[in-house]
Amino acid sequence: MKPAQVEAQLLRVLSDAISGLRDPRVPLIVTVERVSVTSDYSLARVYVSAMGADMPALIDALTHARGHLQREVAAQVRLRRVPLLEFRSANEAAFL
């Protein structure tokens, strides 16, 4: 699978999975702006944004839920190895 296809699938799966989280630090509407995977698919940077949210708390909550979110990805995306999810604020350095 091409990186762009993997990124599109990860974006879809993570958007659904994040909206299902029941953590008070995660607002009702969290937008997964972009996902970028490394060439070996070992790391996926997930850029998120949320209106009026405390971004450090949101990033912390998503990092805390990383295991659950990676299981969701493993169940829905056909990859040999599930990439490690790294969460970042979408407005952080305008997509490094």
Automatic annotation (TrEMBL):
It is found in: Cytoplasm. Gene3D superfamilies: 3.30.300.20. It holds the Pfam family RBFA. Its main location: cytoplasm. The keyword Cytoplasm applies. Keywords: Cytoplasm, Ribosome biogenesis. GO terms for cellular component: cytosol. One of its GO terms (molecular function) is ribosomal small subunit binding. GO terms for biological process: maturation of SSU-rRNA. One of several proteins that assist in the late maturation steps of the functional core of the 30S ribosomal subunit. Associates with free 30S ribosomal subunits (but not with 30S subunits that are part of 70S ribosomes or polysomes). Required for efficient processing of 16S rRNA. May interact with the 5'-terminal helix region of 16S rRNA. Belongs to the RbfA family. PANTHER family: RIBOSOME-BINDING FACTOR A, CHLOROPLASTIC-RELATED (PTHR33515:SF1). Monomer. Binds 30S ribosomal subunits, but not 50S ribosomal subunits or 70S ribosomes. This is Ribosome-binding factor A. It comes from Deinococcus hopiensis KR-140.
